[in-house]
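[stage:ingest] chain + small molecule (molybdenum atom)
[stage:ingest] validated
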Amino acid sequence: MATVHHSACPLNCWDSCGFLVTVEDGKVTKVEGNPEHPITQGKICGRGRMLENRTNSEDRLLYPLKKIGGSFQRISWKQALDEIAEKLAFYKESLGSTSVLHSHDYANSGLLSNLDSRFFNLYGGVTELTGSICWGAGIEAQNWDFGDAYSHAPEDLANSKHVVIWGRNVARTNMHLFQNLQAVKKNGTKIYVIDPIYNATAKLANEYISIKPGFDGLLAAGIMKELLRLNLQDEEFLANYTVGFQHLKALLDSVTLEYISEVTEVSADVITHLAEIYADRPVSTIMGLGMQRYENGGNTIRLLDALAAVSGNIGIPGGGANYANKQVGQSFAYNEMALPERKTAARSFTMMRQAEGILSAIDPEIKMGIVTCGNPLTQVPDTNKVKEAFSSLETLVVIDQYMTDTAVLADYVLPAATAFEVEDVYYSSMYHHYVNHGPKLVEPPGEAKPDAWIWAELANRLGFGEEFNFTREEFMKMGLSSLAEKGITLEKIRTEKFAELPVDKIPWADRNFKTPSGKYEFTASAAPDGKVKLSLPSESKWTNPALAEKYPYSLLTIHPLRSNHSQHFHLFQPEPYVKVEIASSVAAEKGLKEQDHVRVWNDRGEIHGKVAVLKAAHPGTVNIDEGLSARFGGSVNQLTSSRESDNGLGSTLYDCLVNIEKLEKD
Ligand SMILES: Nc1nc2c(c(=O)[nH]1)N[C@H]1C(S)=C(S)[C@@H](COP(=O)(O)OP(=O)(O)OC[C@H]3O[C@@H](n4cnc5c(=O)[nH]c(N)nc54)[C@H](O)[C@@H]3O)O[C@H]1N2
Ligand SMILES: Nc1nc2c(c(=O)[nH]1)N[C@H]1C(S)=C(S)[C@@H](COP(=O)(O)OP(=O)(O)OC[C@H]3O[C@@H](n4cnc5c(=O)[nH]c(N)nc54)[C@H](O)[C@@H]3O)O[C@H]1N2
Ligand code: SF4
Ligand SMILES: [Mo]
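[stage:predict] done
[stage:export] tokens:
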């Protein structure tokens, strides 16, 4: 008999949806949106619905595997755990615990996914990854400017006169914001989209502004110049709640509007018009993450923050420099779960340069890697380097639900349970502030096990089993303990299916910033040279003319519509292929038409695919969606660079010049 249960989406996504899941004969048969969930409102995307196939797929990993003589053989859990624990003990003893690397991303938004950190901290401290290929540059930028990265609550959008969507592919990546935009537009709010690609969100907008990839910070500077020229700045805010405005002013005075118009490829009239819009408060600035995956990414977000501040749109209803909402994650008792103070050794590489880190580490060398909740072979920049690095390890352990490109390289592959097979609570620090409950609905297939079980078993073998001697329920309560005094408990979340977290819905309304000065810092005291800069992407005709001569086109590698990164492609019918989307200017220059086979390349690598001509994209723009595995033509990260952003903590995935040519045969 079919029964319907509430649940939650575990995927790394802005929307963190509430689900209704149908279970029949011990199997998930349907995943739908929970109509009662205040954000989800009964609607979910295809990636959420496909979790049914993702749970039931015949390709799920069912047993622990060990590579013997180049091919995988099934082994027992006992053998796998004994051998992995033995290696962990050996490397710690002989070289120190930092000879082990923990490579991960955030593929499961459950509270208990933090237990991997608990394990590695108690083990003694491994080589960890810092920063983030996803949003690192922007988070650090907002830390410098505001002291943290906080967004307005979704419902506050109704208070905005204007909403500027700046490099967020809302219709594709953040569907409930899209619905929110449709609703506020009906009530007269004006919507603007600034993006090199005329995407589905641009179609909804009142105005679309096309920009050269990587130059948004310069555009924001131009808008501020015009605000000041027209005397439209918020003097009261600038005088009382900010520091460093004189540095910003000097910076803006150092360039002309003509220069800004030339480099951004946005006309001066449009820049003046945007200044008038920004002065017509309240204006909500909604920033995406694509825009900061450039070498100048930190400065880009800082200039957008500065624009929101100069125009008086910080801390007011309907305003905001909305990038991420760290208030959500900060609600939980992370440290109680992860026990960071228990590690006795530490080393870190940035997430971007993990491959270089592995290849160059000495004292100790990296001997063993453990990969959880991530697929670095397709997702981390410079795939060829990543492959070389992960192949060089003496022991690689991958814990996953599927045989990914990364798992193929492993010595041990451990099968993990999926979200519907365990109980957890789920949240995302990106858009809204609800935490959702997901009960255990079905048994994991074969011998797949929850990650938490794997950590506990390894901890037992390594002598700190008592620190894992908690049930899932106890671990969830531990993570929720910081919310108990606010009346949010596991019991409540279980019964009500979701809970609203106690966050500031209009951050900085009290004008008390978390910066060292307590003010908004145009010149950041958190940084050695905290002045904002008008920096440019590193791969552009302005910064590297010789490179731009050889590789004239800007390659974006945006998030795919129907897959969360690499996770859903293998479920597609028909099979996916590498689609090379090109601006019409590129088609004209290279004589390319729909479906032509092409090669796209630069000094880091190359990829083959089929052309699709974009209806409207900034001249010189090429896009290949990220996430495809080797089996479907390969990851576009063969072309991307592992350089870090200006503030050291973000990626430069989209700061990438390429060339393209037609292939006669593929
Ligand atoms: N369907 C789907 N949704 C997802 C995901 C997914 O894989 N698939 N992933 C989730 C995750 S982890 C994340 S981080 C978010 C990301 O959500 P988004 O930030 O919306 O998406 P991205 O693909 O990172 O960013 C791409 C957008 O930035 C634009 N862009 C690129 N360069 C520039 C630039 O220089 N200036 C401007 N103005 N715009 C630029 C692109 O054209 C595109 O519209 O999406 C989440 N949602
Ligand atoms: N070129 C390019 N590259 C990009 C991006 C881009 O825009 N362009 N975007 C970047 C961004 S924003 C992000 S967030 C990263 C995402 O990078 P990843 O998180 O590495 O990408 P996923 O493909 O989601 O891979 C997650 C893996 O974790 C597994 N997994 C899921 N749930 C669990 C679990 O509960 N336990 C375990 N053990 N495994 C689990 C999945 O099966 C999958 O294989 O990619 C980045 N890479
Ligand atoms: S992937 Fe995002 S939009 Fe889709 S169901 Fe999950 S949380 Fe909702
Ligand atoms: Mo991400």
